[in-house]
Write a structure and sequence with these properties.
A: mainly beta, 11 strands, globular, B: mainly beta, six-stranded mixed beta sheet, four-stranded antiparallel beta sheet, about 0% helix
Amino acid sequence: NAGVTQTPKFQVLKTGQSMTLQCAQDMNHEYMSWYRQDPGMGLRLIHYSVGAGITDQGEVPNGYNVSRSTTEDFPLRLLSAAPSQTSVYFCASSPGTAGNQPQHFGDGTRLSIL
Amino acid sequence: GDSVTQMEGPVTLSEEAFLTINCTYTATGYPSLFWYVQYPGEGLQLLLKATKADDKGSNKGFEATYRKETTSFHLEKGSVQVSDSAVYFCALSSRTGNQFYFGTGTSLTVIP
């Protein structure tokens, strides 16, 4: 049971570099989302998708892009990394968009921007 | 907008003590409410949930009751164990179910 798989687990970037955080789920979930976790601020939603080809912004979308070409994959792109994007990033998925569906989380990607 | 406010930590308890972590929410309509737990170096795991008023979610000795009149969803456990040491997050899902809102997390340490 792989569940939600995030890669890489750790990454260090220099300011201005770009990179893609990968997220894949093998549960055929329609809904996928990206969060960042910062001390004292809990988890904040960056972007989400309710199905292949459909994405939308969350609470803190600036500086990040997403796409959803397949049900399984939901990559998060940082086009020009900034120190303010140093954080732990979590991908999550759930079976549908009904409000009572809990989310399944990956183990996170710890990203440092120098 | 929708939001969740939970009790700030850290909380330190002795083994077998009673635990309460307070959580209140602001939401339009009738959200679903959740408690998640995060162990060091891991992602969040669902602990329990409640989808309508007066529902009680329970799991592993933890309980929380959805109180619409006080807009609260406090987490309780009668006797904590060292293995309960973790960070606990209260969360709600928006009316459409498309967005989740998390509290800031409460760190719990249980000492033998």
